[in-house]
Write a structure and sequence with these properties.
It contains 17 helices and 22 strands. It has about 575 residues and is an alpha/beta fold. The protein has four domains: about 120 residues; about 140 residues, Rossmann fold (3-Layer(aba) Sandwich); about 100 residues, Translation factors (Elongation Factor Tu (Ef-tu), domain 3), CATH 2.40.30.10; about 130 residues, Rossmann fold. Helix 1 runs parallel beside helix 4 and helix 1 runs antiparallel to helix 5. The chain binds flavin mononucleotide. Flavin mononucleotide binds next to helix 6 and strand 9.
Length: about 575
Amino acid sequence: MSSTWLTKAVLQFERVLWLVSSGMLFVLGYLWGVLEFGMSHPLSFMASLESLSSFEFAEQSVHQLPGGIWAHISEGEVGYVFTRTEQLFISTVIFFCQVILAIIMMLCLITLRDKSYRIYSGVVLYASGLLMVSPLYSLYESGTVLPWWELVRVAGALLCVRWAAKSLPTPQPHSQALIVYASQTGSAKYLAQRLHDTAHALMDIACVSTLTEHTLQRYQRVFFVVSTYGQGEAPDSARRFVTTLQEANSAASQTQFSVLALGDRNYQTFCAFGHYLSELLEQKGYQRAIPTTEIDRMDPQGVAHWWQQVGELLGIHTAPELFEYDDYTVVANECLNPEQTHRLAHRVTLFRADVRYEAGDLLAVQPEQKDEHERLYSIASYQDNTIELLVRQHIRADGTIGLVSGMLSQLTPGDRVLASVREHTTFHPKTTVPWIMIGAGTGLAPFISFLKKRQTGQDNAPCWLFFGEQYLEHDDYFAKELTEFQKQGILTRLDRAWSRSDGVYVPDLLQQSHKAIRQWVVEQGAHVYVCGSRAGFGESVLATLQNILPEPQWQLQLHTDLY
Ligand SMILES: Cc1cc2nc3c(=O)[nH]c(=O)nc-3n(C[C@H](O)[C@H](O)[C@H](O)COP(=O)(O)O)c2cc1C
């Protein structure tokens, strides 16, 4: 919103500058007609030293500087003598002021290069300085001006402002509808983007973290795509908005809403956050346009049905292409623990060129039966166009193997898989700070990608890995890579808990090192990442960490990916 305000301000300012500069050109035209052209003394712009001898300095003050001599020639002019080339350079004080102004602007542009709106304001300020301050000073000081220089100056200032104003996005009138996503592992965001693609002319899109009550009120209709996390909780990105909404006064609003609630029927609290949000919005006076729709594990038919109802409201008749998958070719498939027949872990390597990926991201894999739901896997690495996954073959209660984990574990080189990378923004590792990574089983996968990121990048903050599995002799996944990370000094500490070999669990190790963990987190600003199954591992690790980490760090420096 501030950007819109700034855009308007800059555009207004541009008009003022046009007005001032036209007035100024008029005045200059008058002055050029009546005043002498040129400088107020007989020396030329670039002169030889000889010409100095013929010149009588009015108020002479001379300073020796490295490489030359600086002289104050008259009230409005300074000269610089380059001793090596024996050249004299004379300029008005104004010219020097403008060079300094230009240097300041360049510095501003360099330091603020990512903050585009500030750059625009910087350019506008520069242009106004260039245009207004200098000519007035020049007229006051010497009563004369150089016509060509004044033209360059006025044109320069106007071009700067024109460029600044043109590069700004013009404030658009708001669409009538808004689609908002609240996502933890990227599915809700992905879905909202696909839906928005089919209706972008009629609809804006926003992450719930940027949403305010005021924004909601501005739209006629707001469609939420939200997932549920933890034990029926909101994704992290939605917490602030929920608090704002809870604290808001209830008042009848014209804004209509609908919630598409993503979840997984295996959880008792199926789609709980979607339902909670829906009720809260209604309590606060918003009008429910379409009933809340539950979506079990990204069921495409459920999504299409909800979108059809949205389409009827908005007059859109395009069915969205919901899930687009790419072809990945299997390069290798290695079973890492063949002795553990009921919990086989596979290292699956897939080929795909030019994938957009960040450490921590997930790969959504489509089952062979197209009407089944996709499954998400942490990416262990993406290097040289190959993606690596660590896949546990899931065995159901009736002894059959899991649909997607079964398919992945039985792949052979040359086979093809349909998959797509999903952004997992809440689990992207923070750069330049130390990391404490806590994983169990296949929860090791994202941490391999974290460590590879540090191995290939400039960032060399310390890393500490806690890893838990059953048997040292069977389940020592990525052992070679971990040893290499240690040798290279990337992995500073490695603590492993082998529950069946040694009877030690990850929470025991955390407890033993509680002082050092606290010191890393509180004093060194380390971020803590936990990945693995929620039941058993995740719950016990979080309970232990709660006693170790102070509240502010628990809130800001802890990230979980528990499934
Ligand atoms: C750690 C974890 C906890 C979850 N808790 C719930 C839950 O309590 N209720 C539910 O319906 N779904 C739950 N889910 C399933 C997600 O809501 C579902 O996978 C959703 O599609 C994820 O969307 P997102 O990627 O946009 O965050 C959970 C998933 C994970 C990984």
